[in-house]
């Protein structure tokens, strides 16, 4: 969180985390495409081999706080391939909230678990534990064959976090996930900043 008193703006960072090709980039592309231009910044893409790390920001419709402050949400994705571990760690640093995009396919169970545990290791190294940061789970690719049940996915991630089912390529569950994490992050930031 960065507070710019001069601009009367609060900047928060939300990171979309998850294994390779789980739908992190698709979420941001859908959000960017469907938001009116006046409510979003430009999409910035840093190409990696086989996947992209994306960043863009948007200013929601007249989210004004006491004292005339506005909130600007910066959305990031991380590259999911294992060899981009250092990049994931850097992108996660300073996050105010996380959306973990899980691939619902049974064959991706181990990939989900490994990246989930890695994320918590990185957060722990920053002095952040469960309960210190808003986290939303998105169970993506619910339209595919041979997927885990919601109960199996909840068991995989400990059953402690809010979740949304999604088919990101169709836009299903994308804005519900964004709305939920935005509200949790805003609540957390306001408690910390006392704005």
Q: How would you explain this protein's 3D organization?
A:
The chain is α/β, with parallel strands linked by helices and about 200 residues long. The chain has one domain: P-loop containing nucleotide triphosphate hydrolases (Rossmann fold). The chain is about 30% helix and about 25% strand. Strands 1, 2, 3, 4, 5, 6, 7 and 8 form an 8-stranded mixed beta sheet that branches. The protein is globular, with a radius of gyration of 16 Å. It starts with a strand and ends with a helix. The model has no long low-confidence stretch (mean pLDDT about 85).
* Share of helix, binned: 25-40%
What order do the SSEs take from the amino end to the carboxyl end, as H and E? EEHEEEHEHEHEH
| Main pleated sheet | 8 strands, mixed
- Low-pLDDT stretches are none
CATH architecture: 3-Layer(aba) Sandwich
Class from secondary-structure proportions: alpha/beta
Strand content: 25-35%
**Radius of gyration from the CA trace?**
16 Å
Name of the CATH first level: Alpha Beta
Number of helices: 5
Integer count of domains: 1
- Mean pLDDT equals 86
What's the CATH topology label?
A: Rossmann fold
* Approximate shape: globular
CATH superfamily: P-loop containing nucleotide triphosphate hydrolases
- Report the end-to-end length measured between terminal Cα atoms: 12 Å
Number of strands: 8
What characteristics describe this protein?
alpha/beta, 5 helices, 32% helix, Rossmann fold
What topology does this entry show?
Layout: E1 2-4, E2 9-17, H1 24-34, E3 44-48, E4 51-58, E5 70-77, H2 85-92, E6 97-103, H3 109-125, E7 135-140, H4 150-156, E8 163-165, H5 174-193
Parallel strand pairs: 2-5, 2-6, 6-7, 7-8
Antiparallel strand pairs: 1-2, 3-4, 4-5
């Amino acid at each position: 969180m960065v507070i710019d008193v001069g601009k009367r703006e609060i900047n928060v960072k939300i990171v979309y985390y998850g294994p390779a090709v789980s739908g992190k980039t698709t979420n941001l592309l859908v959000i960017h495409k469907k938001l009116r231009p006046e409510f979003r910044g430009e999409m910035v893409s840093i190409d990696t081999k086989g996947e992209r790390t994306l960043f863009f920001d948007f200013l929601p419709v007249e989210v004004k706080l006491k004292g005339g402050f506005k909130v600007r949400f910066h959305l990031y994705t991380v590259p999911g391939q294992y060899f981009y571990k250092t990049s994931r760690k850097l992108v996660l640093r300073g996050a105010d909230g996380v959306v973990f995009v899980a691939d619902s396919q049974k064959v991706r169970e181990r990939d989900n678990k490994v990246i989930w545990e890695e994320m918590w290791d990185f957060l722990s190294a920053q002095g952040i534990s469960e309960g210190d940061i808003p986290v939303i789970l998105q169970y993506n690719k619910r339209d595919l064959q041979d997927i885990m049940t919601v109960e199996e996915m909840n068991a995989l991630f400990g059953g402690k976090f809010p979740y949304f089912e999604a088919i990101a390529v169709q836009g299903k569950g994308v804005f519900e996930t964004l709305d939920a994490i935005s509200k949790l992050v805003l609540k957390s930031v306001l408690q910390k900043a006392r704005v």
